[in-house]
Amino acid sequence: MQVHAEYHPGLLESAYEAALVYLMEQSNLRCEEQVNLPIYWKDVKLKKHYCMDLVVDDDTIIELKAVKYVNNEHRKQLWNYMHLTHMPFGLLFNFGCNSLFSEWYCRRDDGEIKKLNWRDNRLENVLEVLC
């Protein structure tokens, strides 16, 4: 990935995020950063919210990490965002190790989240921009 090759591990997540947003915008992908996701108790909107790192073309959540190791808590964070928004695609990137780590997910109509091979679907458009 261009961003990992240019910046290498060791920067804050926000640096990788800024570079990714720039690359996607240069390729005419609509990319929103730090998207608020409200939290509800039953039907009552609470005063707190989650914050998704990136949302691309209103159907793909990108969760960024700059940690030594990705664990299930990082995956669950992305999966919860996918469940709450009903967005079909999710990407987890970790810039904190020597080689870029990525996992790609799809939320099926029945709500099940499946891990994807990165060549399985329309995520190729995002990959072309980032690589």
How are the SSEs ordered, and which strands pair?
Blueprint: H1 2-7, H2 13-26, E1 31-41, E2 44-56, E3 60-65, H3 72-85, E4 89-94, E5 101-107, E6 113-116, H4 124-130
Parallel strand pairs: 3-4
Antiparallel strand pairs: 1-2, 2-3, 4-5, 5-6
The CATH class, by name, is Alpha Beta
The CATH topology turns out to be tt1808, chain A
Rounded radius of gyration (Å): 15 Å
Average predicted local confidence, pLDDT:
90
Helical region count? 4
Query: Can you write the helix and strand succession as a string?
Result: HHEEEHEEEH
Number of strands: 6
Give the biggest beta sheet: 6 strands, mixed
What this model shows, in words?
This protein is of the alpha+beta class. The chain has a single domain, classed as tt1808, chain A, CATH 3.90.1570. It has four helices and six strands. It has a six-stranded mixed beta sheet. Strand 5 (101-107) and strand 6 form a beta hairpin. It is globular and about 45 Å long. 26% of the residues are buried.
